[in-house]
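Hi everyone, sorry if this is the wrong subforum. Our group has a chain we'd like a structural model of before ordering constructs, and none of us has done structure prediction before. Sequence below.
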Amino acid sequence: MTDTTYDKFLPEGIPAWQMPFWESLRDRQAKVQRCDRCGSYRFIPKERCPKCLAAEASWAPISGNGRIYTYTVVHRAPTPAYQAEVPYVIVHVTMEEGIRMASMIRGIEPSEVHIDLPVRLTYEDATPEWTLFYFERAG
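Answer:
Right subforum, don't worry. Here is the predicted structure as tokens:
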């Protein structure tokens, strides 16, 4: 969907050093920080590696595959813009690279969502400036 009247939540106040993640979503290949010293992936972007405290990091593509770690079913929309989607499910996913990411899962009934369900990233152009990520059932 590309619509300049998008009325749901969008990122705001993102520091410039975190923008490579958001830019990678537009390319449909999510990239996260990877520590140049110890090799661990990190998400949400941080100024220092939480494992070895190194400041040096590169932006590395991730597979986009993971498994649901936990989830919650939302029955009351936070704003009127989300009302048509309730009930929807927010999932926390352990990605193959070991990081955890959270977003909605789409294309699946809430009753079918379960811990350890294989999922993959999918992308949606919310506005011309912002591409967001969601999850869908893998396979």
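For your construct planning: The two ends are 23 Å apart (CA to CA). The longest strand covers residues 65-74.
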